Fold:
Amino acid sequence: VASLPQSAVAAVPALSFEFFPPKTEALEQQLWNCIRRLEPLAPRFVSVTYGAGGSTQERTHTTVARLVRETSLTPAAHLTCVGASRGEVDDVARRYWDAGVRHIVALRGDAPAGEAGYTPHPEGYAYAADLVAGLKRVGDFEISVAAYPETHPTAFNAQHDLENLKRKIDAGATRAITQYFFDTDTYLRFLDAALAAGITVPIVPGILPVSNFKQVAKFSAMCGTAVPDWMGKLFEGLDDDPDTRHMVAAAMAAEQVRLLQANGVDEFHFYTLNRADLSYAIAHILGARPKKA
Ligand code: FAD
Structure:
């Protein structure tokens, strides 16, 4: 693992920003402020999530369609196959194609809350690899898929999970975006394991700027992301001090991305949570500068 460069002159990396579709007018305003702030950084694409079980289908579509109409950005629509027939999923994909959207982030999705485990829809795409193959039949989409440096929480084992990632790539995906992680070594080891398994497409690190440590710690337990002890120490005593928390979060994420950059990573995906400030600052540290209109 390379150490942090003191005066790195790395090439400006490719960026992507992830948003979620807003539920209220106030949140809509917040999202669009965020989009307008990040737009001049000319990301490779921006993506919009699909709520659990497709619950935000219309809102995701509306947001993506507005990105096409009103911005210079290239949108990617997240699409899950849980709880829907193949025909229903294909219809959603076709609507995207007709709206000019050419990039899909293809995911299985999670079982609805309260259900013991995931069961494929009887007429549905069972797993994300099946969804990728189905989407390719609808149109020649660019397809990104999910990857898990710390292994998907319900995977049989790490090797099985890696073979699943390979199936998604073999079915037509050309990029994997990782679940967020805090232990950089784990991600770098995962890149080696993926390469050894014959996966040669970019595996883009998903970066989550930690604006609320308590919430992130809770969520991480559900999605299988380890929260190292040093992080607990870093945010200790800051629960009621959002300003300091924010600065600590920026410093922590800056260190993470610079370490990744020093190790040759040249593409980054930001989980913005519809707030621009931390993502913008970290992108700036990586070398991104606004493009003049
Ligand atoms: P898959 O790749 O299908 O894998 C799911 C699990 O099944 C893994 O454990 C895998 O090893 C196992 N598996 C795969 N194939 C088989 C098989 N044939 N037999 C047995 N086991 C198998 N969720 C949303 O609801 N909306 C979103 O917008 C969204 N965006 C995301 C974006 C990113 C970048 C990431 C990392 C996750 C996102 N998620 C989203 C969460 C995702 O839906 C969940 O993590 C889900 O549990 C797995 O989705 P997947 O596409 O990785 O599934």
Q: What stands out?
A: The chain has a mean pLDDT of 95. The two ends are 39 Å apart (CA to CA). The first strand starts at residue 14 and ends at 19. The chain has ten helices and nine strands.
